[in-house]
Amino acid sequence: MNSDNPNILVFATEAGSAENIVAVVKANQHRANFNVFGADAGRKVFWLAGLDPNSRPKAESEKSVCSLLTACHVDAVLIGRCIDPNSYERVLVRAAKRNHIPCVSIIDEWYDYKRNYIGLDNVVDYPNAICCPDSQAFDEAVSEGLPARALQVTGSPALTAFVNEVAEHYSYSLGERSLDKPVNRRLNVLLLSEKIDSECQLDNNPSEVKNNKLGYDEFRVRSEICEVLGSFGEETLVIEKLHPSMAINKFPPLINKNIEWQVTNEKPLLGCLTASDIVIGMRSAALLKSYIAGLPTLSYQPSLSGKNRCTAVRKALIECATTKVQLARWILGQTRRENSERKPVLKFLEQSSTQKVFSVIKSSISNSQAGS
Question: How many other C-beta atoms are found inside a 10 Å radius of the C-beta of residue 326?
């Protein structure tokens, strides 16, 4: 193993995981050799960030992945979360352990801590170290049974990188942007859509929700937002930004005489935020980014059933509407007042987060060498 300039294999399937890894790689590429692999939305994020990712290695079985790690002289493995028990990340964790190679995981959400690592057979495979964004995530992870010794509070590399990106583009202070909408100018609304249907057990009719444990899906949300905005009778632009995992052909623009509805899965989030007056989403971590950028932001989860999993709501940063009446009142309220309330300190925004994650990787390598 080369601890001075280690060979680190990184892999991500999900977009949020890839965003954290991108921040770590870009900040530390002079200190390590990163072999970037990705699949699905994760690979797309790597590609858009200019990291030129490889496709998922052809090695599929745990034994073949072990051989791959040996052939590539890998000193450490860095992944995001691995919520899918059949994900390639799960295979990497097991193969790395088998080869006595340290594996580090970055948690990018404030829920499903144990589900990231528990298998269908209820066997838990924890990486050597798990980086979490703040003390809240640490405490909640421990309460779900994750070993405290493996958890490291590092801050969120992706959200911190976004803060820096926003600061480069805006002249106003974060959290102090006001909505100054001139009379007769159309309202620009950003809808942050995300894939809910896999959790709702939908049939072939996307407008019908069966056995929906959440109470809603992405199709109902976009339909009701269109209905409410259209009822105002004012010219409105809606930019519906799809999650990278979503197929754009399944989300045609909605038709309303008062609304121009655009759908995108390519335009960068910051560009969409710049063009918007207000932001509405469901549970997406992008709602945190909207809040950070200072825009009036709402979580809309109609007929919400069970726990509210929107992190921005749970942290009391934004409101959550669960009915069309609440949605309408919030929209009208945002267009008539300034968003000038004092903002709390966000402890997961840590400028040294990328260095802290890299230090966790280096420590894991050193500990592995000491134990070998």
Answer: 16
Q: What's the token pair of residue 28? A: 């530390």
Instruction: Tell me the pLDDT tens digit for each residue of 50-73.
Output: 998 877 666 578 888 898 898 889
pLDDT tens digits, residue range 119-173? 877 888 899 999 999 999 999 999 999 999 999 999 999 999 999 988 887 644 4
The Cβ of residue 370 has, within 10 Å, a number of other Cβ atoms equal to: 7
Q: What share of the chain is helix, strand, coil (3-state, %, to 5)?
A: 40, 15, 45
DSSP letters of 234-285? S-EEEEEEPPTTS-GGG-PPP-BTTEEEEEESSS-HHHHHHT-SEEEESS-T
Distances in Å between the alpha carbon of 147 and those of 117, 128, 130, 157, 277? 12, 10, 9, 22, 43
Residue with tokens 């990106």: 165
* Cα dihedral 105, 111, 116, 117 sign: positive
Q: What is the DSSP letter of 81?
A: -
User: Residue 53 in 3-state DSSP?
Assistant: coil
Predicted structure pTM score: 0.85
Quick one: which H or E segment has residue 166? helix 157-169
Residue 96 in contact with residue 59, Cβ under 8 Å? no
Phi-psi region of 13 (alpha: psi -120 to 50; beta: other; left: phi over 0): alpha
Burial (CB count <10 Å: 0-12, 13-18, 19+), residue 184: exposed
Distances (CA, A) of 57 to 40, 54, 171, 179: 13, 8, 44, 48
Helix (H, G, I), strand (E, B) or coil at 113: coil
